[in-house]
Amino acid sequence: MNKDRTLEAILWSIALPGFGQILNKQIIKGILFITLEFLVNVFSNFNTAIMLSFLGDFEGAANAIDYQWLMFYPCLYFFAMWDAHRGATQNRSKYIYLPYVFSAYFVTVGLMLSPKLTILGVNIGPVFMPMLFVIPGLLIGFLIKAILSVFSGKNTR
Predict the structure, then answer these.
(1) pTM as predicted
(2) N or C: which end of the chain has fewer CB within 10 A?
């Protein structure tokens, strides 16, 4: 498949885990991801926290969240994106999973630290703080991917 198809699958997976798999004609896997996303979302009260965060009620968002359930979300989310990417491309480049894996790790850490971390004295809560942790996760994932590619001597685009 072409790069547009890969991007389309990743973007649909960002919209809702499982949509990328359905686009890739992996219907059962897509339904499984959607079901898991629904369960984690409902039991963690994530939609309520998202709504409160966008309304600026970061304390209300933090109080609404069930952290034990929400900590499953980053790994589910980034695994679904990686799987949609992998399923949409013929180019199975080595180490492409690393940016997804490190993003999942960092977002999970960001979620755990969100009750205590502040930016300019403001706690931005359990929705926006973990989102900021995607940036170092991607950077470190791509850096390690590049380093491993040099040492393996193979094309890892």
Answers:
(1) 0.90
(2) C
Burial classification of residue 14, based on how many CB atoms lie within 10 Å of its CB (0-12 exposed, 13-18 middle, 19 or more buried): middle
Convert the chain into a string of H (helix), E (strand) and C (coil).
CCHHHHHHHHHHHHHCCCHHHHHCCCHHHHHHHHHHHHHHHHHHCHHHHHHHHHCCCHHHHHHHCCHHHHCCHHHHHHHHHHHHHHHHCCCCCCCCHHHHHHHHHHHHHHHHHCCCCCECCECCHHHHHHHHCHHHHHHHHHHHHHHHHHHHCCCCC
The Cα–Cα gap between 6 and 20 comes to: 9
Q: What is the pLDDT of residue 156?
A: 46
C-beta separation of 102 from 141 below 8 A: yes
Q: For residues 123 and 117, what is the distance between their CA atoms, to the nearest angstrom?
A: 6
40 within 8 A of 48, measured Cβ to Cβ:
no
pLDDT per position as a tens digit, 89-112: 877 778 999 999 999 999 999 999
Nearest to 97 by CA among 113, 86, 106: 86
